């Protein structure tokens, strides 16, 4: 026999349109495909294939079933042969086991409980009186009853124990419901109560089509002080970083179109599906993970990212882009108008407006270059160096060798940095939180020592950054990780860039960096003049970073073997010196004694 989980995977991976389309001439009709029935003679097509549901039906002779039953009926195979046939077409390896080797699925009770809860939520939505408000809300968001049925949308009424009591009648115990997040229990009271109340319910399906979790959204004026979304906890059948909302419905269309659209949340997926976009998926309350990217790569290589265009949305976009590139995929960015998300845009301007933006999608590296250009990152040597720092993660992430070569060429052309230099920088992997570089980013001799003066600005800046996400975004615009001298401060800075609201060190962070971060969080110092502290700290960090680069150039000048090389280095040094003078005119009293020629910004003309 073939294990149930293998059968489920084959069914999930199979494209029923491709399998049936080899035998029957199918024609697309909306979301379905029609043809003359292969099981009886007819002149008017009554045979229908529904890829989203994974089944076929003939309204003439009544035959219906899934991809396995079609192969069995049409080609005379038994069930095991049909599964193997479909598996071979879908890239799934089938392993048979003896019947006595098969064990009861330990997760079956979880699936059964979720199936019951999903049906119960659905019934509450369809209740003539009780679900009226929820249905009106969905219709106001452009979600028709047909779309709501397709996604199994439900409604959790504003009752404390209604689901619990209904479940108990069917033999489901409280402990299982607590573990699935369907019930909650307060510390004060030991009496469990319904976990989802007064919310639109979005069942989350695995690839097999089984419900593995739920998301609940507040609607209308209900629960203004409550979180907009609450979600099921992770369980033996649900790991949010390994699943994508909507993939069970969209996977065959994604495979057929060879592209997927990734949006931020449940409502965007459902709203776009209602507007006719059939390849939409969303992460489940987290940034896109490598596991989700790998899952998506089974079905396509091209991914369109439709996140918000604000600072947080752009950060999520480029983080997701790098994750997709590492999975060998080709991400592109759909730029939405300010203040719009896919759902609001489709409702206010129609699906045609979004379709135009989708057609104008820009490769993720091109979009990064556009934004850096808009923000004047190529106006000086120092800012160009910072731009390169921001582009390197994307260059490193690209696993497709052809795409990576194109990327390197584009960045070299735009920044003026030689390919060889970029490729060398790409080999210097960005330090992880667990292993920050223990040496400064540039050679340090007796001229520069890690004193309180070099670290003070860094420490003060980090203190400001942990006091609000807006400070993290400002810092990211003005300085880069390479500007930090202290490797542990650099690790903390990078961690905050990845998670601006981080208030505890990641488990993988280096112990010294983690200890410093804890000290920063616990520091009782009141920063009454936050903007002043921030500005002074950024200025000090930039000045010291420029000073180190000037010293590096002076060392290179002293070791130059040709006049041409020396002149080029002196020109670079003079430009950096001019930027330093503009940043801090008082700095030169000490610098002139340490670095020859820094008191003359026209040194390159000699």
What does this structure look like?
The protein is built from 26 helices and 16 strands. It is of the alpha+beta class and 606 residues long. The chain has 5 domains: 4-101, DNA Primase, Chain A; 108-238, DNA primase DNAg catalytic core, N-terminal domain; 247-360, Dna Topoisomerase Vi A Subunit, Chain: A, domain 2 (3-Layer(aba) Sandwich), CATH 3.40.1360.10; 370-427, no CATH class; 452-605, DNAb Helicase, Chain A, CATH 1.10.860. The radius of gyration is 30 Å and the shape is globular. The model is unreliable at 430-453 and 600-606 (pLDDT under 50).
Observed structural traits:
alpha+beta; Dna Topoisomerase Vi A Subunit, Chain: A, domain 2; disordered C terminus; 5 domains; DNA primase DNAg catalytic core, N-terminal domain; DNA Primase, Chain A; 606 residues; 16 strands; 5-stranded mixed β-sheet
Summarize the structure.
The chain is α+β, with helices and mostly antiparallel strands. It has 26 helices and 16 strands. It folds into 5 domains: 4-101, Alpha-Beta Complex (DNA Primase, Chain A); 108-238, DNA primase DNAg catalytic core, N-terminal domain (Alpha-Beta Complex), CATH 3.90.980.10; 247-360, Dna Topoisomerase Vi A Subunit, Chain: A, domain 2, CATH 3.40.1360.10; 370-427, no CATH class; 452-605, DNAb Helicase, Chain A (Orthogonal Bundle).
């Amino acid at each position: 026999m073939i294990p149930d989980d293998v059968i489920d995977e084959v069914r999930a991976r199979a494209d029923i349109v491709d399998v049936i389309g080899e035998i029957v001439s199918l024609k697309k009709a909306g979301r379905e495909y029609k043809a003359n029935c292969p099981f009886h003679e007819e002149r008017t097509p009554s045979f229908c294939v529904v890829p989203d549901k994974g089944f076929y039906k003939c309204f003439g002779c009544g035959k219906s079933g899934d991809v396995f039953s079609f192969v069995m009926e049409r080609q005379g195979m038994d069930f095991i042969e049909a599964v193997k046939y479909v598996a071979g077409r879908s890239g799934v390896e089938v392993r048979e086991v003896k019947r006595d080797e098969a064990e009861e699925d330990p997760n079956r009770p979880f699936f059964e409980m979720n199936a019951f809860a999903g049906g119960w939520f659905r019934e509450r939505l369809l209740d003539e009186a009780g679900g009226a408000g929820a249905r009106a809300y969905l219709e106001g968001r452009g979600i028709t009853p047909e779309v709501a049925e397709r996604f199994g949308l439900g409604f959790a009424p504003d009752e404390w124990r209604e689901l619990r009591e209904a479940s108990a009648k069917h033999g489901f115990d409280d402990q299982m419901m607590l573990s699935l997040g369907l019930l909650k229990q307060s510390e004060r009271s030991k009496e469990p109560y319904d976990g989802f109340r007064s919310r639109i319910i979005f069942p989350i399906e695995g690839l097999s089509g089984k419900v593995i979790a739920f998301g609940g959204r507040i609607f209308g004026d209900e629960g203004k002080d409550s979180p907009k979304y609450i979600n099921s906890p992770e369980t033996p059948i649900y790991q949010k970083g390994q699943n994508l909302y909507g993939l069970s419905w969209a996977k065959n269309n994604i495979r057929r179109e060879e592209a997927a659209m990734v949006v931020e949340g449940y409502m965007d997926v459902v709203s776009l599906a209602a507007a006719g976009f059939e390849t939409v998926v969303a992460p489940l309350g987290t940034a896109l993970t490598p596991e989700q990217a790998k899952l998506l790569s089974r079905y396509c290589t091209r991914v369109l990212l439709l996140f918000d265009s604000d600072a947080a949305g752009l950060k999520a976009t480029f983080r997701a882009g790098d994750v997709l590139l590492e999975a060998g995929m080709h991400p592109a960015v759909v730029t939405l108008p300010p203040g719009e998300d896919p759902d609001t845009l489709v409702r206010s301007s129609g699906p045609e407006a979004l379709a135009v933006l989708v057609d104008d999608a820009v490769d993720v590296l091109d979009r990064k270059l556009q934004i850096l250009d808009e923000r004047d990152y190529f106006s000086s040597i120092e800012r160009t160096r910072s731009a390169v720092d921001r582009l390197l993660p994307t260059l490193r992430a690209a696993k497709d060798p052809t795409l990576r070569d194109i990327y390197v060429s584009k960045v070299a052309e735009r920044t003026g940095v030689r390919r060889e230099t970029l490729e060398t920088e790409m080999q210097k992997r960005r330090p992880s939180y667990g292993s920050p570089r223990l040496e400064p980013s540039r050679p340090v001799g007796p001229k520069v020592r890690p004193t309180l003066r070099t670290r003070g600005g860094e420490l003060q800046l980090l203190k400001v950054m942990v006091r609000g996400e807006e400070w993290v975004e400002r810092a990211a615009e003005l300085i880069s990780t390479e500007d930090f001298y202290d490797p542990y401060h650099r690790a903390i800075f990078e961690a905050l860039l990845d998670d601006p609201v981080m208030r505890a060190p990641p488990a993988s962070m280096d112990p010294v960096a983690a200890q410093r971060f804890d000290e920063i969080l616990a520091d009782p110092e009141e920063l009454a003049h936050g903007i002043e502290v921030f500005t002074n700290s950024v200025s000090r960090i930039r000045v010291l970073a420029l000073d180190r680069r000037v010293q590096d150039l002076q060392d290179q000048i002293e070791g130059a073997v040709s006049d041409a090389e020396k002149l080029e280095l002196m020109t670079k040094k003079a430009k950096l010196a001019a930027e330093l003078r503009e940043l801090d005119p008082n700095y030169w009293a000490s610098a002139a004694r340490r670095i020859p020629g820094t008191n003359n910004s026209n040194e390159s003309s000699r």
